[in-house]
Amino acid sequence: GNPAARGVTVGLLLTAPSAAARASISMISPDGIVTTPPDGGAVTVAAGHTLAVPVPRPAGGRDPFAVVVTPQAGSGPLYAVRVVTSGTGGMSAPVTSLLPVPSALATINLPPAENSYSAVMPLPAPGRARTRAANPLRPGCLPAPPVSVRPGMRGGAVRSCR
User: How far is the C-alpha of 162 from the C-alpha of 144, rounded, in Å?
Assistant: First the structure.
């Protein structure tokens, strides 16, 4: 998470390399509360420029927090780096760390689907053999087992009824 200790400033360097970019910035506290900066968190970066944006820590705590940068629809490409500075001077103070802000996962790859009845067939209890279901046409009878018929033979199905 981003540090929230006294004397530490967290900020973002946002760069729009080829076209103007618009984004919103929000913070998420450890307990999951989402907040935005007092100005609403909306920023615009001119094409070919970099903008330094201080990120206020969420109210009521000194616990680490998350920063979310959300590019707006129709915006140009946007690159972000998280900056932590220490001492007085805000974003102009000595830099403690620089970390790139990766894009969030936007696609989830799923395994290919297969035809299978296993999703709708109940599995036997552990240690028990699978039993055949009763024949709904004749209560008390089990369905006929498959019978192979060779040429010249008569085939038939044996039912076991009680």
Answer: 14
Q: Can you read off the two tokens belonging to residue 42?
A: 């909306």
CA–CA separation, 23 and 124 (whole Å): 54
The single residue listed with the structure tokens 């709708």 is: 120
- Please tell me the pTM assigned to this model: 0.60
Please give the DSSP secondary-structure letter assigned to residue 161. Answer: B
Low-confidence ranges of the chain (pLDDT < 70): 1-5, 60-61, 105-106, 116-119, 121-162
Asked whether 12 and 83 are in contact (CB, 8 A), the reply is yes
R_g (Cα) of the chain, nearest Å: 32
> Quick one: which of 126, 158, 130 has its CA closest to 142?
158
Question: pLDDT tens for residues 21-51?
Answer: 999 999 888 888 888 887 778 999 999 999 9
